[in-house]
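User: For my dataset I need records formatted as: sequence, then structure tokens, nothing else. Please produce one.
Assistant:
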Amino acid sequence: MKPPISIKTYSSTANLPQNWNELAIDNIFLNKDYLAILEKSAPRNMFCHFIGLFKDNELVGIALSQFLDLNKMESFGERDKCVKTAVRNTVFKNFCSHILIIGNNMLTGQNAYSFSDKIDKTQGLQALKTASKKLEIIFKNKGLKVHITTFKDFPIEETTAFQQAGFQNYFQYSTQPNMVFNISNHWKSEQDYFDALSKKYRDQYKRARKKEEGVEKRKMHLEDIIKHEETIYDLYYHVAKNAHFNTFFLPKNHFRTFKEILKDKFLFYGYFLDEKLIGFNTLIKNGEVMDTYFLGYDESVQREKMLYLNMLYDMIAYSINKGFKKIIFARTALEIKSSVGAKPMEMYGYAQHTNPFADLVFEKAFSYLEPTVSWKERNPFK
């Protein structure tokens, strides 16, 4: 018989076990430093807990949970104004406004947990299911009833472990794919990437690069981020509020906090036109993987200068030059990311409504409410 797993939840990184980072060695997004960023600058409608799993008093698993209170959201996204959107917003406010996530709602990919080889994945997932129930009680004691508990974002090969861990009563869902750019071993420079493109996409590259003439790209340091904080937030907020669907908005100090804590592992690039900041993008070094993070731009300049496409090319060029193996381009803007060479990777999640009656219709409601995005996959390479 397997020894039982004990569970501890923490609301402060100061209280985490000393050897926490030993289990986060393969994923910066479970590392104490990153968790400290969440602690200091999470969205105002998000509460984070950090979960430790113990076997014989030894730390054998770590996980992140986020509680979202959608009642604190002014807007869920302003791009789609229609009856369906209005219905969706009403349903979310009244029946789905308190969401408990095992995972990270601010990123795409498996950033939920890490287990040591002292426990198998099934055992770890069973313990996390128990941990989610404990967290429901914690929030209930604060007067916050959890409506939905969800475990997100897992590749297809992880779904078997969830079934074995007893998640059959949860609704398995798949939303927009994670766009992943794999860097060829043969590429050593941006020119190698360009040479691998077919003529149509080499022409696209040349057209975009020509359009951005006059735009200056600058690597921004902490003092620069602080100096331009108001403009940075305005550029970010413009892009965020025009997304299909939003469950949070970053606080103004988020990028400053990131740079303060992660230092050179967090890259911030500003794009200037006539000395005015017109856009920015951010990258996070995660071992051999480069994760793209939030960006922002001035819409009036973006189209004319093909700013977003040029940002994608810049991220690719930097990642090739620095020897990264892949880039996580995440969700949104699927077709344009596909046009530069990113491939879709289906991600799966598990969700359950805490009300048994609501849970019966949850699957149908989710399918109706989840924004659908039609796009065409591209293959830009020869």
